[in-house]
Amino acid sequence: MKKLFVLGVILLSIISVDFIDNTHKMNAEAAKSSLEKDVPNNTNCAFCNMVVYQKNYKMGVFSAKAIKKKGKVVYYDDIGCLLYDEVKNKTTNKKYVRDYKTLKWVQAEKATYVKTSLASPMDDGYIYFAKAADAKNYIAKHSGTKIVQFQTVQKESVQKYQ
After folding, report:
1. Angle subtended by helix axes 150-161 and 79-89, to nearest 10
2. Cα–Cα dist 102/104, whole Å
3. 26: pLDDT confidence band, cut at 50, 70 and 90?
4. Residues 6 or more apart from 48 whose CB is under 8 A from it?
5. How many CB atoms within 10 Å of residue 92?
6. What is the pLDDT of residues 28-54, one digit of tens each?
7. In 3-state terms, the chain is what percent helix, strand and coil (to 5)?
8. Angle at CA 30, nearest 5°, toward 130 and 91?
9. Nearest alpha-carbon partner for 55 in 63, 67, 47
10. Beta strands per DSSP E along 22-104
């Protein structure tokens, strides 16, 4: 009887590990496919409920998105809402912003941030670049702009909403 019980526990463990592994694979696949897609029509910000614009709209360049731990994709009208939403909910998600030049999704922590005076949904004025050289070229052509660190954007987002 003991052997049967131990065998059952081992079998359940193997099945559980395979299920968890498959869940992670599905989440990774969902995350990858979401990077190729635009913001769905009629999407509202997961934090402030304002409109999240698609890339072909003027304000679409400011859109951001997060992939939560279980693979759910949520959208934000700008990076400030995304970052404060994480703080408010005490979570860390995979974060993405739009490259200003290509409009493709880029991992938020790897992007180069430029502070501008552009009108953005939450009036923060940040734009994002996948390549630092593109950010430097933008700054060279637009006075009053500067590169800021991701941590600075995080800090300002938290201060804004507290």
Report:
1. 70
2. 5
3. very low
4. 77, 81, 122
5. 11
6. 566 556 677 899 999 999 999 999 999
7. 45, 20, 35
8. 75
9. 63
10. 64-67, 73-76, 94-98
Residue whose pair of structure tokens reads 């804004």 in the numeric block: 160
- Whole-angstrom Cα distance, residue 56 to residue 152? 28
DSSP code string of 93-129: -EEEEEBTTT--EEEGGGSEEEE-----TTS--EEEE
What pTM did the predictor assign?
A: 0.79
Q: Which of 9, 95, 18, 80 is nearest to 48 (CA)?
A: 80
Tokens for 91, please give them: 């979570």
> CA-CA distance, 45 to 136, in Å (whole number)?
30
Are 78 and 112 in contact, with CB atoms under 8 Å apart? no
